[in-house]
Design a protein that fits this description.
The protein folds into 2 domains: 106 residues, Urease, subunit C, domain 1, CATH 2.30.40; 273 residues, TIM Barrel, CATH 3.20.20. The longest helix is centred in the last third of the chain and has 23 residues. Strands 1, 2, 3, 4, 5, 14, 15 and 16 form an 8-stranded mixed β-sheet that branches. It is an alpha/beta fold and 402 residues long. Helix 2 crosses helix 3 and helix 8 runs antiparallel to helix 9. Bound molecules: zinc ion.
Length: 402
């Protein structure tokens, strides 16, 4: 207990923010679908105090850039990495030290790429890195973690309820389950209805959300009916599953980056050729399901399922969704900001450029509404009022402005 107090005291001292900071902007996409022009963002401590027309001297000039809320990736695996030979070993050969370092490295790459919050699902090492980031000792995004994953081999419903309770007591932020097999196995339901109900029911009773890996329709429907929170992938779900998502307020996260990332890094992943074929074959159906989900007004969030090779490139998900799947740029951005925040139950903390919210901001060169590849040109990243990346330009001289 004592140790905990000391840690908190040090953390507070380390991250005590410098009073008030003013940013000049010419274009803000507010994360809720709105566009604001020629505004100043006034930051006090860790929070946005005001968004208003220019009236004071600004410390940073972000005019000419597009400013957005810090992006949120609802599905990553921060501990996945290649080894020194650029091969994926599934963590074989890792020591606790290398595991921690790779995870911290991936966290930093992710933040540098404009993502100020991620949900990592999940490995136990996430928690240590999350806590070091929260203390101000390491640079990285806000991390929510499931610590582990539950699947059809996790035991009977009672054993699964125990696992959920243990995850909660060990500091997990959410539960992750596999309701279906993987893409190459066809995505059929793998956990029984009873197992899924045990996981999502117990999680809900403890105030935890449940993220569900579901490729095909049967597993997705069972999860939606069991009160789970979000469906990941969904490449082969049907319209009835999409309608159920709407009825039950379930979030949907079709992931493209993970598919492309495996294909782009074939040489590093020791998979059979048929697996790569099934990943490749899933791209077009995933795009089709995204379009149908949009038409049905499903609540769509942005997640990447970032694994080894994808950390720091999370923003490619925007490009795949908009350029290849026909998503509207503003919709994709809302998916990664206010809608993602709502899916994490953090809508009053993050996900918009608005007074009272945490000062999590990303600025890019160009306008992603006109050219979605602008999301690759991140030049400024702020999290909780603290600047982690600023290639924009030097701070403006603080001359007084009438
Ligand atoms: Zn995943």
């Amino acid at each position: 207990m004592m140790r905990r107090y000391l840690l908190l005291a040090c953390a507070a001292a380390a991250i005590a923010p410098a009073q008030r900071v003013v940013l000049d902007t010419s274009l803000i996409l507010d994360g809720r679908g709105g566009t604001l022009r020629n505004q100043q963002i006034v930051i006090s401590g860790t929070k946005i105090e005001a968004v208003a027309p220019r009236k004071a001297a600004a410390a940073y000039d972000l005019r000419g850039l597009t400013v957005m809320p810090g992006w949120i990736d609802t599905h990553v695996h921060l501990n996945w990495h290649f080894d020194a030979a650029h091969k994926y070993t599934g963590g074989r050969g890792d020591t606790p030290a290398s595991d921690a370092l790779y995870t911290a490295e991936n966290a930093w790459l992710t933040l540098h790429g404009g993502f100020t919050t991620v949900q990592s699902v999940g490995a136990a090492i996430d928690a240590a890195v999350r806590d070091r980031i929260n203390s101000g000792a390491l640079p990285g995004p806000r991390i929510l973690t499931s610590l582990s994953q539950i699947n059809e081999r996790s035991g009977d419903p009672d054993a699964i309820r125990d696992l959920v309770r243990r995850t909660k007591s060990e500091g997990g932020d959410l539960i992750k389950i596999f309701a279906t097999t993987g893409m190459s196995a066809g995505g059929a339901q793998s956990m029984s209805d009873q197992q899924i109900q045990a996981a999502c029911g117990e999680a809900k009773s403890l105030g935890l959300r449940t993220l569900v890996h579901a490729i095909g329709a049967a597993g997705a429907k069972a999860a939606i009916l069991a009160g789970c929170t979000a469906i990941e992938h969904g490449s082969y779900v049907d319209d009835a599953a999409l309608d159920l998502m709407v009825q039950h307020g379930v979030y949907f996260d079709p992931n493209f980056l993970v598919l492309h990332n495996y294909l782009d890094n074939r040489a590093s992943f020791d998979f059979p050729a048929a697996s790569f074929t099934s990943l490749e074959n899933a791209i077009a159906p995933t795009a089709e399901i995204l379009r149908r989900a949009r038409a049905r007004k499903v609540k769509i969030v942005l997640g990447t399922d970032a694994v080894a090779g994808a950390h720091g490139r999370n923003a490619e998900e925007f490009v795949y969704r908009v350029r290849d799947a026909g998503d509207r740029p503003m919709d994709a951005i809302v998916s990664a900001t206010s809608m993602a925040a709502e899916s994490l139950n953090l809508q009053s903390t993050i996900g918009a450029v608005a007074p009272g919210l945490e000062a999590d901001l990303v600025a890019v060169e160009g306008n992603p509404l006109e050219d979605i590849t602008a999301v690759r040109r991140v030049v400024f990243v702020m999290k909780g009022g603290r600047i982690y990346r600023n290639a924009a330009r030097a701070p403006v001289k603080s001359t007084s402005v009438k």
